[in-house]
């Protein structure tokens, strides 16, 4: 079977690339090993975790905030199986949506493990047992995403020692949950189970949470999580995770700089130390596709690999492992293959931590700017001074805008607060157009809204906020 384009992997990068290419008139096929479309994101990542985050947040609100609003519902009762049912239904609906989009755009889907045997040729070991199918195309896109990373000596059984996959499907609320890793995934899933009643301790090798995010944001956010009941063991190196009698597990760790070992007992241990590019079984070495020391496929600015006709996007290449980054790369590559000028602005890719409060960021951090020697100005505004936040009982957090000291161009923005993941996008649009903090400050914002805090932070860059 012959095509213009074969996409291996139907996660956010792969399925979006396939759809955009089909819209542009290319004959497209996709290959998916999982058996269902959507990749990690839709099946065991972004979508199911957000379903649980939303449900658990409402559960926590009912138990802690409703009474303050004059709503007496008593003590809420958790029906974990129903909550998991909501999660599963959400996943199913999203996956079915991709099936529909493939049919709508006349994309052929081949369910099986794909292997590149030569430039322009892919062999698929079909999941249905019908054998190996050979597909040919002018271009092949590797969009196989990433897989869970672990630590040496730790065995993930998805029962008592779990990855993110097991953490979204626990059969009961653990009494004690130890999370190894204070990144986005660990804090989000830790939040879910903390809200539902677990005692959560986070063990992190670095001396801070959320590596890569603005330092002030990380510090303030850690305090908020501690108020919610999180305990943190920072600057600690995990040396062993050992099962003990009765189904519990002991986590042993020591100061990263050296020192006496400590132990924690847990009912469940979540290993959330990052992800690795997934290229297993693709035949990349045999066909000569180069990878870097971290296992990522090496590409140029147009997503071309070291082998003509083979391209790569998403988590398997350099850059943040974010679904929306992969989607934008998929669109850009499809447009390039169709003769257009596809492009991704890597300086304006927002990132969000979907806890409560949320944490959202786009562009540079203060640490980035200092390291680059760029003079900048800072504008900050707290949600404690925002009328809508007071009415909503969501005054935790602040907005922080970083602007070039000479040109006033906005170089980065950081928000901690309810709805931060939605609010960050007006700043992203502003940055796409090279806008200044003055542009943002002079844009009329509806009152009362949480977004007014964004305007006030922009005003604060010039030391003229109104409400503080």
How would you characterize the overall build of this protein?
Its cofactor is FAD. This is Dihydrolipoyl dehydrogenase. Belongs to the class-I pyridine nucleotide-disulfide oxidoreductase family. This protein is α/β, with parallel strands linked by helices and 468 residues long. The protein folds into three domains: 2-147 and 276-337, FAD/NAD(P)-binding domain (3-Layer(bba) Sandwich), CATH 3.50.50; 161-273, 3-Layer(bba) Sandwich (FAD/NAD(P)-binding domain); 351-461, Enolase-like, domain 1 (2-Layer Sandwich), CATH 3.30.390. The protein is 32% helix and 26% strand. The protein has helices at residues 12-23, 39-44, 46-64, 80-104, 164-167, 184-195, 215-227, 284-287, 323-337, 366-372, 387-391, 420-432, 437-441, 452-461, and strands spanning 2-8, 28-32, 108-118, 121-126, 132-142, 146-148, 161-162, 176-180, 199-204, 231-234, 236-243, 249-255, 262-266, 268-271, 275-277, 310-312, 351-353, 358-363, 376-382, 398-404, 410-417. The strands form five sheets. It has a five-stranded mixed β-barrel with strand order 1-2-3-4-5. The protein has a five-stranded parallel beta sheet with strand order 7-14-8-9-10. A hairpin with a 6-residue loop joins strand 12 (249-255) and strand 13. Helix 1 (12-23) runs parallel beside helix 9. The longest helix has 25 residues, at 80-104. It is globular, with a radius of gyration of 24 Å. The mean pLDDT is 97.
- What does the overall shape look like? globular
Helix and strand composition category: alpha/beta
How many discrete domains?
3
Name the beta content range. 25-35%
Oligomer: single chain
Number of helices: 14
**Which segments are poorly predicted (pLDDT under 50) over 5 or more consecutive residues?**
none
CATH topology of the largest domain: FAD/NAD(P)-binding domain
* Biggest β-sheet strands, sense, barrel: 5 strands, mixed, barrel
Number of distinct beta strands = 21
Mean pLDDT: 97
Instruction: Supply the CATH class of the largest domain.
Output: Alpha Beta
The name of the CATH architecture of the largest domain is 3-Layer(bba) Sandwich
Strand order of the largest sheet: 1-2-3-4-5
Please name the fourth-level CATH homologous superfamily of the largest domain: FAD/NAD(P)-binding domain
Protein name: Dihydrolipoyl dehydrogenase
Family: Belongs to the class-I pyridine nucleotide-disulfide oxidoreductase family.
GO molecular function: dihydrolipoyl dehydrogenase (NADH) activity; flavin adenine dinucleotide binding
Organism: Oharaeibacter diazotrophicus
């Amino acid at each position: 079977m012959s095509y213009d384009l074969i996409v291996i992997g139907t996660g956010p990068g792969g399925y979006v690339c396939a759809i955009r290419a089909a819209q542009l008139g290319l004959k497209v096929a996709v290959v998916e090993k999982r058996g269902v479309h959507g990749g990690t994101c839709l099946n065991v990542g972004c979508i199911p975790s957000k379903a649980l985050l939303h449900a658990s947040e409402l559960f926590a609100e009912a138990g802690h905030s409703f009474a303050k609003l004059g709503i007496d519902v008593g003590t809420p009762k958790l029906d974990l199986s129903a909550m998991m049912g909501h999660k599963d239904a959400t996943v199913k609906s999203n996956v079915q949506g991709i099936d529909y989009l493939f049919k709508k755009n006349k994309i052929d889907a081949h369910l099986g493990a794909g292997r590149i045997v030569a430039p322009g040729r892919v062999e698929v070991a079909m999941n249905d047992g019908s054998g190996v199918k050979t597909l040919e195309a002018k271009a092949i896109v590797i969009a196989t995403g990433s897989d869970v990373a672990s630590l040496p000596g730790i065995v993930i059984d998805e029962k008592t020692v779990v990855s993110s996959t097991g953490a979204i499907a626990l059969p009961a609320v653990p009494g004690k949950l130890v999370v190894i890793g204070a990144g986005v995934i660990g804090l989000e899933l830790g939040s879910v189970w903390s809200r539902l009643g677990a005692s959560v301790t986070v063990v992190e090798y670095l001396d801070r949470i959320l590596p890569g995010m603005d330092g002030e944001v990380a510090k303030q956010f850690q305090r908020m999580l501690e108020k919610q009941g999180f305990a943190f063991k920072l600057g600690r190196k995990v040396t062993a995770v050992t099962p003990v009698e009765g189904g519990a597990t002991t986590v042993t760790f020591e100061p990263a700089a050296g020192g006496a070992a400590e132990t924690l007992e847990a009912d469940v241990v979540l290993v959330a130390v990052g992800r690795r590019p997934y290229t297993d079984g693709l035949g990349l070495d045999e066909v000569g596709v180069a990878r870097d020391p971290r296992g990522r496929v090496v590409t140029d600015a147009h997503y071309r690999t070291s082998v003509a006709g083979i391209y790569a996007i998403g988590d398997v290449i350099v850059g943040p492992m974010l679904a929306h980054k992969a989607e934008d790369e998929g669109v850009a590559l499809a447009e390039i293959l169709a003769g257009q000028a596809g492009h991704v602005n890597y300086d304006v890719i927002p990132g969000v931590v979907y806890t409560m409060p949320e944490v959202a960021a786009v562009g540079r951090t203060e640490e980035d700017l200092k390291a680059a020697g760029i003079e900048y100005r800072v504008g900050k505004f707290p949600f404690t001074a925002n009328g809508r936040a007071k009415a909503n009982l969501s005054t935790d957090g602040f907005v922080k805008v970083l602007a070039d000291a000479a040109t006033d161009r906005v170089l980065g923005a950081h928000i901690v607060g309810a709805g931060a993941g939605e609010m960050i996008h007006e700043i992203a649009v502003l940055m796409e157009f090279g806008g200044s903090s003055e542009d943002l400050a002079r844009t009329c914002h509806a009152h009362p809204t949480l977004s007014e805090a964004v305007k006030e932070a922009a005003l604060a860059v010039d030391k003229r906020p109104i409400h503080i």
